[in-house]
């Protein structure tokens, strides 16, 4: 196949992906759901679940196997960019002692309970879902991470849209979610190393490598960027500063992938380590955000959808476990978050509103599902279940949040 033929095939696939995500995303927004919900659904619709079933010949022509590696590369570069944006938008000034104490208690409960449910999933459904026969410990940690993760970017957007991101409750939600997600990413990295490594050497390399990487970012890269930014007269027009950030972003993605933490962790940590110079952060975000949200993320959703066949879940013996695992996913976040906030003295309204929003997994769940497939931790059935969790928990977030506003303080 010639380069021109490859270009045409990839271009056709991209055109269909962008069109579907724009249309379905717009419809989601019309019914008061975040656009990302529609894009997630569009990704599944483009896969074998709907498009592949209704138009199998056309599906093969539009999404041939030759195109998949190119979509994979675009999607993963985009994810690193996106997680960089997520990290850079975390307001570190929220991390005061009182808020950290409350967030620590809430995060601990919201991290512990999902792993209990992950263990229960292994006990009840291990034979059906753990077809890759990874260890009980690894499967429990993987499922616990899938239950524990929070759709941090969507949470931030909802808090912004409802003008509560700068309130005590908004700050508590942001800090708690960031603590949970950082720990979850590290645990997921541990699972991948445990599953693919043949000795404890790789585990030690990941742990110590991650520590060195984070310290290097905060104590070497951050001061360098601060000095560099201070020398930059106009960050909106200086391409040199922007190119340095993109270079560092790609290097961080490569390093963390090598360590077994997956490339998105590198993007997230670089964003977290960025100097909080507002004009520079905004200049970089404006350049990265548009292309990431309009092109990269829809490609990731489509790539995830192309690997998802929801019809698998209708086969005998799987539908029951799928429903129970969905219940596990809801219970593992809503119950501990609501309970721990009530114990810390928060009202029913505030407790249930935060529990509802932090229950959403969104894009983060899809990333975990793709990591699981990439490293051979899960099969197509469990992959489809995780996609279902991502969609159902995200779709329910706003309705449950609106329901919480009817509670009395």
Would you kindly provide a brief summary of this structure?
It is built from 17 helices and no strands. It has 409 residues and is mainly α.
Low-confidence stretches: none
**Into which percent range does the helicity of residues fall?**
over 70%
CATH architecture: Up-down Bundle
Strand content: under 5%
User: What is the 3D shape?
Assistant: globular
Q: Rounded to an integer, what's the Rg over CA atoms?
A: 21 Å
Helix and strand composition category: mainly alpha
Total strands: the figure is 0
- CATH C-level class is Mainly Alpha
The domain count comes to 1
End-to-end span in angstroms? Answer: 65 Å
Largest sheet: none
Q: Can you count the helices?
A: 17
Q: What is the residue-averaged pLDDT?
A: 83
Oligomer: single chain
- Secondary-structure element pattern, one letter each: HHHHHHHHHHHHHHHHH
How is the CATH topology named? Na+/H+ antiporter like fold
Structure explained in plain terms:
There is one protein chain. By secondary structure, this protein is an all-alpha fold. It has one domain (69-404): Na+/H+ antiporter like fold. It is built from 17 helices and no strands. Helix 16 (362-374) packs antiparallel against helix 17. Residues 23-395 form the Cation/H+ exchanger transmembrane domain.
């Amino acid at each position: 196949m010639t380069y021109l033929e490859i270009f045409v095939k990839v271009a056709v696939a991209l055109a269909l992906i962008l069109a579907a995500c724009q249309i379905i995303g717009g419809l989601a927004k019309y019914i008061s759901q975040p656009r990302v919900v529609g894009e997630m659904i569009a990704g599944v619709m483009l896969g074998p679940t709907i498009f592949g079933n209704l138009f199998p010949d056309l599906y093969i022509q539009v999404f041939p196997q030759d195109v998949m590696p190119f979509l994979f590369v675009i999607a993963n570069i985009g994810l690193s960019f996106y997680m960089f944006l997520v990290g850079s938008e975390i307001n570190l000034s929220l991390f005061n002692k009182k808020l950290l104490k409350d967030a620590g208690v809430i995060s601990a409960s919201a991290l512990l309970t999902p792993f209990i449910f992950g263990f229960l999933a292994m006990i009840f459904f291990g034979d059906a879902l753990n077809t890759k026969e990874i260890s009980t410990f690894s499967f429990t940690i993987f499922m616990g991470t899938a239950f524990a993760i929070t759709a941090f970017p969507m949470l931030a957007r909802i808090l912004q849209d409802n003008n509560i991101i700068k309130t005590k409750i908004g700050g508590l939600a942001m800090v708690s979610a960031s603590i949970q997600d950082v720990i979850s990413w590290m645990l997921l990295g541990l699972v991948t190393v445990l599953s693919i490594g043949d000795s404890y050497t790789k585990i030690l390399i990941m742990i110590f490598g991650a520590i060195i990487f984070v310290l290097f970012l905060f104590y070497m890269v951050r001061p360098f960027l601060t000095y560099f930014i201070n020398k930059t007269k106009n960050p909106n027009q200086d391409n040199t500063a922007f190119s340095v950030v993109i270079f560092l972003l790609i290097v961080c993605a490569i390093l963390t992938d090598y360590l077994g933490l997956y490339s998105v962790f590198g993007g997230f940590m670089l964003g977290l380590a960025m100097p909080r110079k507002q004009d520079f952060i905004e200049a970089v975000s404006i350049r990265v955000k548009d292309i990431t949200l309009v092109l990269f993320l829809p490609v990731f959703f489509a790539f995830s959808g192309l690997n998802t066949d929801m019809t698998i879940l209708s086969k005998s013996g799987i539908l029951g476990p799928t429903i129970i695992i969905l219940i596990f996913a809801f219970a593992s976040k809503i119950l501990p978050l609501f309970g721990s906030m009530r114990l810390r003295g928060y009202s029913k309204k505030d407790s249930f509103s935060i529990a509802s929003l932090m229950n959403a997994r969104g894009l983060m769940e899809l990333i975990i599902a793709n990591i699981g497939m990439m490293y051979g931790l899960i099969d197509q059935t469990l992959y489809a279940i995780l996609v279902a969790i991502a969609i159902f928990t995200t779709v329910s977030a706003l309705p449950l949040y609106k329901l919480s506003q009817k509670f009395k303080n």
